[in-house]
Amino acid sequence: MNENRIFYPQRPILPVAKPSPSGKTSSSTAIPATSFNKILEKELNGVTFSQHAMQRLESRNIRFNQADLEKLNSAVEKAAQKGAKESLVLMNNELALIVSVKNKTVITAMDGSNIKENVFTNIDSAVII
């Protein structure tokens, strides 16, 4: 081999960013900081309730204490570990919750009198606590 040759490292060719009409260059990799904060907050807070579920709980006078919320969070985590997407969570044989496991959101809620003789569809798992 010829040792007198000089080798230059190759640099990748990147596309040139076109200036926007306002004269500023736009960065396609910029992600708003609020999106990360929202995601982090959702992960830390656990299960949320949809507007529909809140209306159902309020109309049926159903209240959750901290222990109930911890049980619900635990049930959703167990369902997520098993790969569930939409789950039926039965609490104390008195309350049925349909939960989007992926979004950690309670979609709807039913109390004991509405659970009986009901068909639950579009679920792929059930957690009984």
TrEMBL record:
<protein>
    <recommendedName>
        <fullName>Flagellar operon protein</fullName>
    </recommendedName>
</protein>
<dbReference type="Pfam" id="PF12611">
    <property type="entry name" value="Flagellar_put"/>
</dbReference>
<dbReference type="InterPro" id="IPR013367">
    <property type="entry name" value="Flagellar_put"/>
</dbReference>
